[in-house]
Amino acid sequence: MSDIPRSSAARTAKLASLPIGFAGRTAAGWGKRLAGRSSEDVGAELSAKTAEQLFAVLGELKGGAMKFGQALSVFEAAVPDEMAGPYREALTKLQASAPPMPAATVHKVLAEQLGTGWRERFQSFDDVAAAAASIGQVHRGVWHDGREVAVKIQYPGADVALRSDLRQLQRFGRMFQSVIPGMQVRPLIDELRERMEEELDYRAEADNQRAFAAAYDGDPDFMVPKVVASAPKVIVSEWVEGTGLSTVIAEGTPEQRNEMGRLLALFHFSSPARAGLLHSDPHPGNYLLLPDNRMGVIDFGAVARLPDGLPVTFGRMIRLAIDDKPDELMEMLREERFVPRSADLDPAEVLGYLRPFVEPMQEETFHFTRRWMQGQAERVSDVHSDEFQLARSLNLPPQYLLIHRVTLGSIGILCQLDAEAPFRAIVQEWQPGAAED
Fold it and tell me: What's the pTM value of the predicted model, to 2 decimals?
């Protein structure tokens, strides 16, 4: 991977360029304020330039930097296209051009993880990678019992790059805050760091996949491939053949897009109750439309452990917003630390800010569109608006950060699908506290 910085020094230098650039722009911003420009205009320009550099640099790196960029990308709609564009372009180029591991390296990893006689466990093994990701790649094979399998192999040295990146990124919270107002970035990095330790151990991912496969075994709507074998850096699981969700988004019929939207929402909200886990990597590459119209789900390295299901707090907040109870909603927001006790906010204004987010719950079937998503983003990202200032007064407590991010990511995919889905019925069935009393 010669076009991607791999050494610790090279990766650190790339990441270090972010705060240096931010400091220079901040100093220039003070000069412009002294010259008479408004703080709002200067702040908007600073955010735009910071976002442009941030997304571009994160898109050039794999490992923890790319993972962090992917986590930020679900909030991409919160900033104008001219800011997020460079990141999308860099990430697309990276995914398209990253060369795979040489066959000799693949064989060495398989020998280390499955034993020197690893070939005897396969009837056949394809040396050409079928897919690549940020920390590993997938090969197709046939297991000794005749089952077609996917063999996921971790890149050598991925653990070093991941840990180094996240240590560096943790220092840059103030800069990221300027790009995404109202979001607690440091807890996001902490969450990613904790989760990456699990993602690096493929045995943990295999255990997650086994739990999902057991919970959805025989389900008429979903297929989770069973794990065949696992080691710290290799997972062998059943091969799944289907149409990628990205293809359904681009070429699917309205009926296919609506059905995949329904299934995505149902899987998101039902899995905590059924498996005690939340699939936490909502990306089109992780979902497939199978020939029998079920949805196949893959890649279980990122999960949230929710043995008691989804938090009832979210459901109660939804219900209070729908029922137009601003005072009760404000009290709950304060109790759960979404709003600091010291903040002097009007409950009616807070409800007015939050109400559009529960629109999908107010109709029997909701049409998720890019325009709706963009409208929500524009409503809260205009630095001159009262709602923007209100958003800066709200917090996202760390214990809810991952769930919130995954839910936003899933809704983003629903909007890409342009899907009409029975969202209200799904949420009321599976989100505790959301059903009408």
Answer: 0.79
